[in-house]
Design a protein that fits this description.
Shape: elongated
CATH class of the largest domain: Mainly Beta
Radius of gyration: 23 Å
Number of strands: 23
Number of helices: 6
CATH topology of the largest domain: Glucose Permease (Domain IIA)
Largest sheet: 10 strands, antiparallel
Distance between the termini: 44 Å
Strand content: 35-45%
CATH superfamily of the largest domain: Glucose Permease (Domain IIA)
CATH architecture of the largest domain: Distorted Sandwich
Structural class: mainly beta
Order of helices and strands: EEEEHEEEHEHHEEHHEEEEEEEEEEEEE
Number of domains: 3
Length: about 350
């Protein structure tokens, strides 16, 4: 089975993106963007497909090959970045599923090495930066002393060390959370008594959703390209349908539009580094052209939690955020729903 191939090389203002069937050369001048698309003959031959796949009446994604038709009339052609992205978006493998809160909490330790950042540590352990800061009394995302040993829980929340005069009820009130929820997440023999110095795991006390609906995912509210038909930004003679909105964002933090589960985080062809979040009730959101990804697949994120930084990866004419909303497998205009 052949794998999808897409890679972008960038040297200064020159960007070369190589995919399975074409090469895109992009030069970003001071006043003009120069674009050239070259056809490419793939070096890897397409192997025969199983008869059961060929008999399917719907298009199937097999590596980078799209099979369309029935039986002997089936035709094979490479899958474009847009088709691959849409197949990932509508796949039931990227649907939302509720977290298993019955899993025991594991407290891990991490000694900070030279050059490590809080965002990278949070991504590697699958928790938010707020969880690490709150569990270790850090005062900033940016100040992280080399050699410090961090305590990191296996789920988002806060590790609280019991102080003199505190009990479970006062700790629950401090974090504005029900005491029953704290009890359910800790192996306490007696809920009425906790000793000074004990470490209590407080489940994420912040609300999963800050506002009803969807939150604007970037600091800037300027939309540089809207939802719908538009001229191709790299070839003004062509028109294409833009299934999202482009937001002006110059290497800035990108926030989750709503509580959900990260079901894709990685390279997505022409969309560069991308994150897909599945939300309850059939919703999904996509964040493309990121310069940095702060989350990993399987991680649950709150509304407003940082999931990455905007950037210029993939087929992009400048740093910005490509944002999409999908409901029950169909793209919708995000501008109608976000606050």
């Amino acid at each position: 089975m052949m794998r999808h191939y897409s890679k972008t090389y960038q040297i200064g203002k020159l960007s070369v993106s190589i995919s399975y069937n074409d090469i895109i050369v992009l030069y970003k001048g001071n006043k003009k963007i120069y674009f050239k698309k070259l056809s490419r003959i793939p070096r890897v031959s397409i192997r025969p497909l199983h008869k059961k796949i060929a008999m399917c009446s719907l298009p199937l994604l097999v590596g980078a090959v799209l099979v369309v038709g029935v039986g002997r009339d089936a035709q094979r052609r490479p899958v474009s970045d847009e088709e691959r992205k849409n197949m990932i978006v509508i796949s039931n493998k990227t649907d939302f599923s509720s977290p298993d809160e019955n899993t025991a909490i594991v407290i891990r330790t991490h000694r900070v090495k030279k050059g490590e950042t809080l965002s990278h540590i949070a991504r590697d352990y699958g928790v938010s930066m707020d969880t690490i800061c709150g569990s270790n009394s850090l005062v900033s995302y940016d100040i992280l002393p080399e050699g410090i040993v961090l305590r990191i829980p296996s789920r988002d929340g806060i590790l609280h060390t019991v102080k003199k005069g505190q009990n479970l009820l006062s700790i629950a009130r401090q974090y504005r959370i029900h005491v029953e929820k704290v009890l359910s997440q800790n192996s306490l023999k007696n809920g009425d008594f906790v000793a000074v110095g004990d470490v209590i795991f407080v489940p994420d006390a912040k609300p999963l959703d800050i506002v009803p609906g969807f939150l604007w995912p970037a600091a800037c509210r300027a939309v540089t390209s809207g939802y719908g038909w538009r001229r191709n930004p790299f070839n003004c003679e062509e028109r294409d349908f833009h299934r999202g909105i482009d937001i002006r964002s110059n290497y800035q933090w990108v926030k989750a539009t709503k509580y959900g589960k990260v079901t894709f985080a990685g390279w997505l062809g022409g969309y560069g580094r991308a994150v897909l979040i599945a939300h309850p009730n059939g919703w999904k959101s996509l964040y493309g052209h990121l310069s940095r990804i702060l989350v990993r697949e399987g991680q649950y994120v709150r509304q407003g939690q940082y999931v990455g930084k905007s950037g210029n990866t993939g087929y992009s004419s400048g740093p910005h955020l490509h944002f999409e909303l999908i409901h029950n497998g169909r793209h919708v205009n995000p501008y109608r729903y976000i606050k």
